[in-house]
Design brief:
CATH architecture of the largest domain: Alpha-Beta Barrel
Oligomer: single chain
Largest sheet: 8 strands, parallel, barrel
Bound molecules: 3-methyl-2-oxobutanoic acid, zinc ion
Number of helices: 17
Shape: elongated
Length: 500
């Protein structure tokens, strides 16, 4: 029953944009649509055109971008909504109406027969315009199955090209989802699509179960964006289909991490480091037993059927109190440091002491410890040697930072403005390094170590180069701006050293 090729319908720009607190500009949406197209999704749900003038304009501009993916617009089962989609020249109109008794009664105040008629009329109207039509029975998984099947059969007769089974409030479990979709699959001839929400963290599992029952399309969103707990995650669904179910999609999986990072940046929603596939830690190893295994053979402590290269990620061995000596040695070697066995033992001891004191051991801590124990190995090789930092801020002026430093051996001065003094100072550090060095800020955290307005602030900063190498560094000072600048300079210097 399982089809070999599964279609990917992306709803990041529609359901994903309904994530509380997320609002993308028209330019952002075009960027996202282009990235989804590069990734190879089959359909992009570009928006809900009737919802606002701006939304309609943005759906139209995505249609006009001439992408390979089909562009879809969402509509309720009325002529005005559908016309708004048709005005945008979408390839596909996605019409939806609730079918569960609770939603029929309390959200649209209709009865089952009225819902059935509205659904059929809407599908006939779309098809009458010569456009493809996807029909969704909203809250399908809480709908009486006999009635649901009747609705699906009637919209099939009305000409719908595909039906969607939304698990709108995410209440299914995989075995129930499989049985449910199978019942529909047995009687409906057009392809089946599923749209699973993640209220219990089961959206991906339920989507995969639906595929096992015969669904040929899954609706997903990047970084699991969407209403409440979000939709089935694109990367997790696709990689499970490829690597576990051995099914094909058109997704170029090497762009998965890049796509996730773009959505993190534009949506402002950071994903946790332990997010599967695309999170910072998805292929990171710290404990001695794991890193030793990984250094021997990567599939000892990774799935093997999925590698970081497949998804555009990198494998990282991380310093920390659980780190083993093989891993630490490899990290130091990568940074050009060759400790003797005695020096390595001392470095290990100090890392573990730091960890036992409750400190997060950053890469930069490891290199600093190593340099102290091995002598001043890296001195003189620093990309940035900071000489002077000054910052102006106030309620009547734009915060501006000036920095004087020696960069790659040459004296330089820059001034940079920002939304606040820290932003201006960090911007100045990045500017002083020059455009050729493509270094991105990945992580920025400030923690007050002591109380009061003169509290010692600890700043932890992670930077990433164009190859995805990440170095984390820290600095502690009473002055938050100086702590931020020092942490960033230290992280950049470590990253450059590692690159060399
Ligand atoms: O969750 C849902 O039911 C939806 C529909 C519009 C498909 O988003
Ligand atoms: Zn939804």
């Amino acid at each position: 029953m399982m089809l070999k090729h599964i279609q990917i319908f992306d709803t990041t720009l529609r359901d994903g944009e309904q994530t509380p607190g997320v609002s993308l500009t028209a330019d952002d949406k075009i960027l996202v649509a282009r990235q989804l197209d590069k990734l190879g999704v089959d359909t992009i749900e570009a928006g809900f055109p009737i919802s606002s003038k701006g939304e309609k304009k943005s759906v139209k501009s995505i249609v006009d971008a001439g992408l390979n993916a089909k562009i879809c617009g969402l509509a309720r089962v009325n002529k005005t909504d559908i016309d708004a989609c048709l005005d945008c020249n979408v390839d596909l109109v996605h019409v939806f109406i609730p079918t569960s008794d609770i939603q029929i009664q309390y959200t649209i105040e209709k009865n089952r027969e009225e819902v059935l008629r509205l659904a059929v009329d809407a599908v006939e109207y779309v098809k009458g315009q010569g456009v493809d039509c996807l029909f969704s029975a909203m809250d399908a998984t809480r709908t009486k199955v006999d009635y649901l099947i009747r609705v699906y059969q009637e919209v099939e007769n009305a000409g719908a090209d595909m039906i969607n089974v939304p698990d709108t409030v995410g209440i299914m479990r995989p075995s129930a989802m499989k049985d449910f979709v199978k019942k529909i699959y047995d009687v409906v001839k057009i392809p089946i699509d599923v749209h699973c929400h993640n209220d219990f963290g089961l959206a991906v599992a339920n989507s995969l179960a639906a595929v096992e029952a015969g669904a040929s399309q899954v609706q997903v969103a990047v970084n699991s964006l969407g209403e409440r707990a979000g939709n089935a995650d694109l990367a997790e669904t696709v990689m499970s289909l490829h690597s576990i179910h051995k099914l094909k999609t058109n997704i170029q999986t090497k762009y998965l991490v890049e796509t996730s990072r773009l959505l993190e940046r534009l949506s402002g929603i950071r994903i946790p480091p332990n997010t599967p596939i695309v999170g910072d830690n998805a292929f990171s190893h710290e404990s001695g037993i794991h890193t030793h295994g990984i250094l021997m053979r990567t599939d000892t402590f990774e799935p093997g059927v999925m590698t970081p290269e497949m998804v555009g990620h990198i494998r990282r061995i991380v310093a920390g109190k659980h780190a083993g000596k093989h891993a630490v040695k490899q990290m130091l070697n990568t940074a050009g440091l060759e400790p003797t066995d005695g020096q390595l033992a001392e470095i290990m001891k100090r890392i573990k002491d730091l960890g036992d004191k409750g400190k997060r051991v950053t890469d930069a801590d490891l290199y600093t410890i190593a340099e102290v124990i091995m002598g001043e190995v890296a001195k003189g090789e620093q990309a940035i040697v900071l000489e002077e930092v000054s910052v102006m801020t106030g309620n009547k002026i734009t915060p501006t930072a000036s920095i004087k430093a020696v960069v790659h051996g040459k004296p330089k001065n820059v001034a940079q403005s920002g939304v606040g003094p820290v932003d201006a100072a960090l911007g100045a550090v990045q500017t002083i390094l020059g455009k050729d060095e493509k270094i991105k800020l990945r992580d920025f955290r400030i923690e007050a170590i002591t109380g009061g307005s003169d509290a010692l602030a600890e700043v932890i900063i992670g930077v990433e180069d164009e190859k995805g190498n990440i170095v984390t560094s820290r600095a502690a000072r009473e002055d938050i701006v100086m702590a931020s600048v020092e942490a960033l300079v230290s992280a950049i210097n470590r990253l450059m050293l590692r690159k060399r």
